[in-house]
């Protein structure tokens, strides 16, 4: 199976298939964790305009998508379990970076 936009349960990402990151986050159970990370990043940034806030969240999504693509290319395929593990590891790393920043800031 390939991860297809609009597919009911995406299991694998092909090299030419566009990632549907919101669906991946939903299916893997990581949507809430991603939203919490976004909230934490916004809080550390302080007062941002709506446009700046949106840009920050979209940049987080782009970084995560790049990470998932890199991991899939490295492994050659990606199951839902793989996507969940890679997403959770990336979120944990981002949260740790935020904590380190708070400790030094």
Can you walk me through this structure?
The chain has 105 residues and is mostly helical. It has one domain. 70% of the residues lie in helices and 0% in strands. It has four helices and no strands. The protein has helices at 21-28, 31-45, 50-75, 80-104. Helix 1 (21-28) crosses helix 4 (80-104), helix 2 runs parallel beside helix 4 (80-104) and helix 3 (50-75) packs across helix 4. It is globular, with a radius of gyration of 15 Å. 18% of the residues are buried. Mean pLDDT is 84; it is low at 1-13.
Computed Rg: 15 Å
In total, how many domains does the architecture comprise? 1
Helicity, as a percent range: over 70%
Unreliable residue runs: 1-13
Q: How many runs of DSSP E, i.e. beta strands?
A: 0
**String of helices and strands:** HHHH
Largest sheet: none
Termini gap: 46 Å
Mean pLDDT: 84
User: How many DSSP helices?
Assistant: 4
For this entry, what is the oligomeric state of its chains? Answer: single chain
Helix-strand makeup class: mainly alpha
The 3D shape can be described as globular
| Proportion of strand residues | under 5%
């Amino acid at each position: 199976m390939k991860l297809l936009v609009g597919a009911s349960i995406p299991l694998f990402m092909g090299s030419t298939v566009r990632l549907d990151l919101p669906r991946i986050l939903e299916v893997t159970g990581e949507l809430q964790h991603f939203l919490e990370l976004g909230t934490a990043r916004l809080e550390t940034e302080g007062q941002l305009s709506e446009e700046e806030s949106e840009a920050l969240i979209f940049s987080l999504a782009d970084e995560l998508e790049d990470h998932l693509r890199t991991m899939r290319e490295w492994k050659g395929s990606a199951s839902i379990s793989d996507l969940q593990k890679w997403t959770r590891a990336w979120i944990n790393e981002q949260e740790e970076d935020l904590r380190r920043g708070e400790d030094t800031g």
